[in-house]
Amino acid sequence: MSNQNLRRVEAAARSALISVDAYDVELDLRTAEDPDAAGFRSRSTIGFSCTEAGAETFLDFIHGGVSSVVLNGRELPLDSAVDGSRIHLPDLDLVNVVTVDGTALYSRSGEGMHRFTDPADSRTYLYTQYEPADARRVFANFEQPDLKAAFTFHVTAPSGWEVASNAVETNRTELADGLSRWDFAPTQRISTYITTVLAGPYYKAADAWSGTMDDGSVLEIPLGAYCRASMARYFDPQNIFDITKRGLDYFHGLFAYPYPFGKYDSAFVPEYNLGAMENPGLVTFTEAYVFRSKATEAQYEARANTILHEMAHMWFGDLVTMAWWDDLWLKESFADYMGALAVDNATDFTNSWVSFANRRKAWAYVQDQLPTTHPIVADITDLEAAKQNFDGITYAKGASVLKQLVAYVGFDAFIEAARGYFRDHAYGNTTLADLLNALTSASGRDMGVWSRLWLETAGVPTLTPLVETDDDGVYTSVTVVQDAPDPVSGAQVPRPHRLRIGLYNPDSSGALVRTGSVEVDVAGPRTPIPELTGMQRPALLLLNDEDLTYAKIRFDNDSLQTLLHHVGRIPDPLARAVCFSALWNLVRDGALSAQDYIRLIVHAAPSETGAGVLQLLLDNARFAVERFAPAERRGALREALYSLVVEQLYAAEPGSDRQLIWARSAAALGRRSTSQTPLLRGLLDGTAEVPGLAVDSDLRWLLWQALAATSNASRAELEAELELDPTASGRVGFTTAAAAFPDAAVKAAAWQDAVHSDELSNQLLSATIEGFSIGSHELLSVFSADYFASLTLVWRSRSIELASRVVAGLFPGAQDLPEHMVPADHPVLVASMDWLEANPEAPAALRRIILEQQDQLLRALRAQAAGR
Question: Can you list the positions of beta strands (E) in 350-421?
Answer without folding.
Answer: none
